[in-house]
UniProtKB/TrEMBL annotation:
GO molecular function ontology, one term from the record: nucleotidyltransferase activity
Primary role: Catalyzes the formation of 4-diphosphocytidyl-2-C-methyl-D-erythritol from CTP and 2-C-methyl-D-erythritol 4-phosphate (MEP).
Family listed: Belongs to the IspD/TarI cytidylyltransferase family. IspD subfamily.
Positions marked as site (Transition state stabilizer): R17, K30
Protein's gene: ispD
Lineage: Bacteria, Pseudomonadati, Pseudomonadota, Betaproteobacteria, Burkholderiales
SUPFAM superfamilies for this protein: Nucleotide-diphospho-sugar transferases
Keyword Nucleotidyltransferase: yes
Gene3D superfamilies the record matches: Spore Coat Polysaccharide Biosynthesis Protein SpsA, Chain A (3.90.550.10)
Protein name from the UniProt record: 2-C-methyl-D-erythritol 4-phosphate cytidylyltransferase
InterPro entries xref list: IspD (IPR001228), IspD/TarI (IPR034683), IspD/TarI_cytidylyltransf_bact (IPR050088), ISPD_synthase_CS (IPR018294), Nucleotide-diphossugar_trans (IPR029044)
Protein backbone atom coordinates (compact mmCIF):
# COMPACT_ATOMS: atom_id res chain seq x y z
CA UNK A 1 0.00 0.00 0.00
CA UNK A 2 1.32 3.48 -0.79
CA UNK A 3 2.29 5.72 2.11
CA UNK A 4 0.34 8.86 2.96
CA UNK A 5 1.56 12.25 1.75
CA UNK A 6 0.37 15.09 3.99
CA UNK A 7 1.19 18.76 3.42
CA UNK A 8 1.91 21.23 6.20
CA UNK A 9 1.66 24.94 5.39
CA UNK A 10 3.29 27.20 8.00
CA UNK A 11 1.16 30.36 7.91
CA UNK A 12 1.74 31.91 11.33
CA UNK A 13 4.16 34.65 10.27
CA UNK A 14 3.46 38.38 10.41
CA UNK A 15 5.14 39.35 7.14
CA UNK A 16 7.31 42.12 8.64
CA UNK A 17 9.47 42.56 5.56
CA UNK A 18 6.46 42.86 3.29
CA UNK A 19 4.99 45.80 5.17
CA UNK A 20 4.86 48.92 3.10
CA UNK A 21 5.39 51.73 5.59
CA UNK A 22 3.69 54.20 3.27
CA UNK A 23 0.50 52.09 3.22
CA UNK A 24 -1.12 51.63 6.62
CA UNK A 25 -3.90 49.48 5.09
CA UNK A 26 -1.39 46.80 4.15
CA UNK A 27 -0.65 45.85 7.79
CA UNK A 28 -2.41 42.50 7.43
CA UNK A 29 -0.07 39.46 7.50
CA UNK A 30 1.11 38.96 3.92
CA UNK A 31 -0.47 35.50 3.53
CA UNK A 32 -3.88 37.21 3.68
CA UNK A 33 -3.16 39.93 1.13
CA UNK A 34 -5.09 39.57 -2.11
CA UNK A 35 -3.37 38.55 -5.32
CA UNK A 36 -5.71 38.89 -8.30
CA UNK A 37 -8.59 39.02 -5.84
CA UNK A 38 -7.67 35.82 -3.97
CA UNK A 39 -5.76 35.62 -0.64
CA UNK A 40 -2.17 34.47 -1.02
CA UNK A 41 -2.74 31.60 1.43
CA UNK A 42 -5.55 30.20 -0.71
CA UNK A 43 -3.35 30.27 -3.82
CA UNK A 44 -0.62 28.35 -1.97
CA UNK A 45 -3.01 25.73 -0.60
CA UNK A 46 -4.73 25.24 -3.96
CA UNK A 47 -1.33 24.72 -5.59
CA UNK A 48 -0.71 21.76 -3.25
CA UNK A 49 -4.21 20.32 -3.74
CA UNK A 50 -3.57 20.19 -7.49
CA UNK A 51 -1.64 16.94 -7.03
CA UNK A 52 -4.18 14.30 -5.95
CA UNK A 53 -1.44 12.36 -4.16
CA UNK A 54 -1.51 15.04 -1.43
CA UNK A 55 -4.13 13.55 0.87
CA UNK A 56 -4.54 16.50 3.19
CA UNK A 57 -3.24 20.04 3.60
CA UNK A 58 -2.79 21.13 7.22
CA UNK A 59 -2.53 24.90 7.48
CA UNK A 60 -0.81 25.96 10.70
CA UNK A 61 -1.75 29.46 11.80
CA UNK A 62 -1.17 31.62 14.87
CA UNK A 63 -3.17 30.73 17.97
CA UNK A 64 -5.40 33.80 17.71
CA UNK A 65 -5.66 33.93 13.90
CA UNK A 66 -9.11 35.26 12.92
CA UNK A 67 -8.87 34.85 9.14
CA UNK A 68 -7.70 31.43 7.91
CA UNK A 69 -10.93 29.48 8.18
CA UNK A 70 -12.90 31.95 6.04
CA UNK A 71 -10.10 32.33 3.53
CA UNK A 72 -9.97 28.57 2.92
CA UNK A 73 -13.72 28.05 3.00
CA UNK A 74 -15.04 25.33 0.70
CA UNK A 75 -11.72 23.59 0.03
CA UNK A 76 -11.89 19.82 0.55
CA UNK A 77 -8.86 18.00 2.10
CA UNK A 78 -7.88 21.13 4.10
CA UNK A 79 -7.74 21.61 7.86
CA UNK A 80 -6.72 24.75 9.75
CA UNK A 81 -4.80 24.27 12.99
CA UNK A 82 -4.18 27.27 15.31
CA UNK A 83 -0.97 25.94 16.86
CA UNK A 84 1.66 28.17 15.21
CA UNK A 85 4.82 29.14 17.10
CA UNK A 86 7.16 32.14 17.32
CA UNK A 87 9.44 30.90 14.52
CA UNK A 88 8.80 29.08 11.26
CA UNK A 89 10.58 25.96 12.57
CA UNK A 90 8.45 25.96 15.72
CA UNK A 91 5.29 26.34 13.64
CA UNK A 92 6.29 23.35 11.51
CA UNK A 93 7.18 21.26 14.58
CA UNK A 94 3.86 22.13 16.23
CA UNK A 95 2.03 21.24 13.02
CA UNK A 96 3.79 17.87 12.87
CA UNK A 97 3.04 17.07 16.51
CA UNK A 98 -0.58 18.11 16.06
CA UNK A 99 -1.00 15.95 12.94
CA UNK A 100 0.07 12.77 14.79
CA UNK A 101 1.01 11.15 11.47
CA UNK A 102 1.71 7.46 10.89
CA UNK A 103 5.39 6.62 11.27
CA UNK A 104 5.74 5.91 7.56
CA UNK A 105 3.89 9.01 6.27
CA UNK A 106 5.62 11.59 4.07
CA UNK A 107 5.27 15.28 4.78
CA UNK A 108 5.49 18.16 2.32
CA UNK A 109 6.20 21.51 3.99
CA UNK A 110 5.25 24.51 1.84
CA UNK A 111 5.41 28.23 2.72
CA UNK A 112 2.11 30.12 2.65
CA UNK A 113 4.22 32.83 1.04
CA UNK A 114 4.90 30.81 -2.15
CA UNK A 115 1.61 31.01 -4.04
CA UNK A 116 3.24 30.57 -7.46
CA UNK A 117 4.17 26.89 -7.11
CA UNK A 118 3.65 25.29 -10.55
CA UNK A 119 2.04 21.86 -10.64
CA UNK A 120 4.91 20.53 -12.77
CA UNK A 121 7.42 21.35 -9.99
CA UNK A 122 5.25 19.74 -7.32
CA UNK A 123 4.78 16.63 -9.47
CA UNK A 124 8.56 16.41 -10.04
CA UNK A 125 9.39 16.71 -6.33
CA UNK A 126 6.93 13.99 -5.33
CA UNK A 127 7.88 11.69 -8.23
CA UNK A 128 11.61 11.86 -7.45
CA UNK A 129 11.31 11.55 -3.66
CA UNK A 130 9.01 8.53 -3.97
CA UNK A 131 11.11 6.90 -6.71
CA UNK A 132 14.38 7.34 -4.81
CA UNK A 133 12.78 6.92 -1.37
CA UNK A 134 14.79 9.99 -0.31
CA UNK A 135 13.71 13.35 1.07
CA UNK A 136 14.31 16.41 -1.07
CA UNK A 137 13.43 20.00 -1.83
CA UNK A 138 12.77 22.24 -4.79
CA UNK A 139 15.68 24.60 -5.39
CA UNK A 140 17.28 26.74 -8.09
CA UNK A 141 20.97 26.86 -9.02
CA UNK A 142 22.35 30.36 -8.40
CA UNK A 143 22.50 32.25 -11.71
CA UNK A 144 24.13 35.52 -10.63
CA UNK A 145 27.59 36.34 -9.33
CA UNK A 146 27.53 36.12 -5.54
CA UNK A 147 28.93 38.89 -3.34
CA UNK A 148 29.60 38.68 0.36
CA UNK A 149 28.86 42.05 1.97
CA UNK A 150 30.04 44.05 4.90
CA UNK A 151 28.75 47.34 6.25
CA UNK A 152 30.14 50.36 4.43
CA UNK A 153 31.01 53.70 5.97
CA UNK A 154 28.08 56.13 6.00
CA UNK A 155 28.12 58.88 3.40
CA UNK A 156 25.89 61.83 2.62
CA UNK A 157 23.48 61.07 -0.26
CA UNK A 158 23.38 63.39 -3.26
CA UNK A 159 20.38 65.68 -3.35
CA UNK A 160 17.24 63.91 -4.61
CA UNK A 161 18.75 60.48 -4.06
CA UNK A 162 16.42 58.54 -1.70
CA UNK A 163 18.38 56.40 0.70
CA UNK A 164 15.92 55.73 3.48
CA UNK A 165 15.36 52.29 4.93
CA UNK A 166 12.34 51.19 6.95
CA UNK A 167 10.40 53.77 8.99
CA UNK A 168 12.26 56.64 7.34
CA UNK A 169 15.59 55.80 9.00
CA UNK A 170 18.74 56.00 6.89
CA UNK A 171 19.31 52.70 5.10
CA UNK A 172 22.36 50.66 6.08
CA UNK A 173 24.87 50.78 3.24
CA UNK A 174 26.88 47.74 2.27
CA UNK A 175 30.01 47.17 0.26
CA UNK A 176 31.57 44.07 -1.25
CA UNK A 177 33.82 42.15 1.11
CA UNK A 178 34.41 39.25 -1.24
CA UNK A 179 33.10 37.49 -4.37
CA UNK A 180 32.11 33.89 -3.71
CA UNK A 181 32.13 31.03 -6.16
CA UNK A 182 28.56 30.24 -7.19
CA UNK A 183 29.49 26.77 -8.33
CA UNK A 184 27.44 24.29 -6.37
CA UNK A 185 25.27 26.98 -4.76
CA UNK A 186 21.49 26.54 -4.91
CA UNK A 187 18.61 28.63 -3.54
CA UNK A 188 16.20 26.57 -1.44
CA UNK A 189 12.49 26.77 -2.15
CA UNK A 190 9.53 24.85 -0.81
CA UNK A 191 7.85 22.36 -0.81
CA UNK A 192 10.40 20.27 1.03
CA UNK A 193 9.43 16.60 1.32
CA UNK A 194 10.62 14.20 4.01
CA UNK A 195 9.50 11.13 5.95
CA UNK A 196 7.39 12.71 8.70
CA UNK A 197 8.90 10.88 11.64
CA UNK A 198 12.47 11.60 10.55
CA UNK A 199 11.66 15.29 10.11
CA UNK A 200 10.01 15.47 13.52
CA UNK A 201 13.15 14.02 15.15
CA UNK A 202 15.51 16.24 13.15
CA UNK A 203 13.63 19.43 14.07
CA UNK A 204 13.52 18.40 17.71
CA UNK A 205 17.27 17.71 17.77
CA UNK A 206 18.03 21.13 16.21
CA UNK A 207 15.69 22.85 18.65
CA UNK A 208 17.34 21.16 21.64
CA UNK A 209 20.75 22.20 20.33
CA UNK A 210 19.54 25.80 20.07
CA UNK A 211 20.34 25.93 16.36
CA UNK A 212 18.35 28.35 14.21
CA UNK A 213 16.68 26.41 11.43
CA UNK A 214 15.32 28.32 8.42
CA UNK A 215 14.17 25.32 6.39
CA UNK A 216 13.40 21.64 6.96
CA UNK A 217 16.31 20.48 4.80
CA UNK A 218 18.86 22.11 7.11
CA UNK A 219 17.45 20.21 10.08
CA UNK A 220 17.71 17.00 8.07
CA UNK A 221 21.31 17.81 7.05
CA UNK A 222 22.27 18.24 10.72
CA UNK A 223 20.60 14.90 11.35
CA UNK A 224 22.90 13.20 8.84
CA UNK A 225 20.58 12.99 5.85
CA UNK A 226 21.47 14.37 2.38
CA UNK A 227 18.28 15.91 0.94
CA UNK A 228 17.97 15.74 -2.87
CA UNK A 229 18.03 19.08 -4.73
CA UNK A 230 15.23 19.01 -7.28
CA UNK A 231 15.07 21.80 -9.88
CA UNK A 232 12.28 24.22 -9.01
CA UNK A 233 10.88 27.19 -10.92
CA UNK A 234 11.48 30.95 -10.61
CA UNK A 235 7.69 31.50 -10.37
CA UNK A 236 7.82 29.74 -7.01
CA UNK A 237 9.63 32.66 -5.36
CA UNK A 238 8.79 33.63 -1.79
CA UNK A 239 6.76 36.83 -1.50
CA UNK A 240 8.96 38.72 0.96
CA UNK A 241 9.24 42.43 0.04
CA UNK A 242 6.54 45.00 -0.84
CA UNK A 243 7.46 44.93 -4.54
CA UNK A 244 7.00 41.13 -4.69
CA UNK A 245 3.20 41.40 -4.67
CA UNK A 246 3.02 43.06 -8.12
CA UNK A 247 5.54 40.65 -9.53
CA UNK A 248 3.66 37.61 -8.20
CA UNK A 249 0.39 38.93 -9.61
CA UNK A 250 2.01 38.98 -13.04
CA UNK A 251 2.95 35.31 -12.76
CA UNK A 252 -0.33 34.05 -11.34
N1 LIG B 1 6.51 32.14 13.36
C1 LIG B 1 6.34 31.89 12.08
C2 LIG B 1 7.08 32.60 11.09
C3 LIG B 1 6.86 32.33 9.75
N2 LIG B 1 5.94 31.39 9.39
C4 LIG B 1 5.64 31.12 7.97
O1 LIG B 1 6.80 30.71 7.30
C5 LIG B 1 6.69 31.04 5.92
C6 LIG B 1 7.97 31.68 5.39
O2 LIG B 1 8.37 32.71 6.25
P1 LIG B 1 8.57 34.24 5.88
O3 LIG B 1 8.46 34.48 4.44
O4 LIG B 1 9.78 34.69 6.58
O5 LIG B 1 7.26 34.87 6.56
P2 LIG B 1 7.19 35.89 7.75
O6 LIG B 1 7.94 35.35 8.92
O7 LIG B 1 5.76 36.18 7.90
O8 LIG B 1 7.95 37.14 7.13
P3 LIG B 1 8.92 38.19 7.86
O9 LIG B 1 10.16 37.40 8.22
O10 LIG B 1 9.16 39.23 6.85
O11 LIG B 1 8.18 38.70 9.07
C7 LIG B 1 5.47 31.96 5.79
O12 LIG B 1 4.45 31.22 5.18
C8 LIG B 1 5.15 32.33 7.21
O13 LIG B 1 3.77 32.57 7.47
C9 LIG B 1 5.23 30.69 10.38
O14 LIG B 1 4.41 29.84 10.04
N3 LIG B 1 5.48 30.93 11.70
C1 LIG C 1 11.94 27.80 3.81
C2 LIG C 1 12.46 28.90 2.94
O1 LIG C 1 11.42 29.48 2.19
C3 LIG C 1 13.46 28.33 1.96
O2 LIG C 1 14.01 29.32 1.18
C4 LIG C 1 13.12 30.00 3.74
O3 LIG C 1 14.26 29.51 4.39
C5 LIG C 1 12.20 30.67 4.73
O4 LIG C 1 12.94 31.68 5.36
P1 LIG C 1 12.28 32.87 6.12
O5 LIG C 1 13.37 33.62 6.76
O6 LIG C 1 11.32 32.25 7.09
O7 LIG C 1 11.61 33.70 5.09
Amino acid sequence: MSKKIIAIVPAAGVGKRALDVSNEGAAVPKQYRLLKGKPMLRWSVEALLADPRVEQVRVVVAVDDPRAQAVLDGLARVVVRPVGGPTRAETVSAGLADAALDNDAWVLVHDAARPGLPLSSLNRLIDICLYEQQGGLLALPVADTVKKAHKAAAFAPAEGCVLTGTAGKPATRYAVAETLSRESLWLAQTPQMFPAELLRKALLQAHRAGVEITDEASAMERYGVEPRLIPGDPRNFKVTWPSDFDLMEKWL
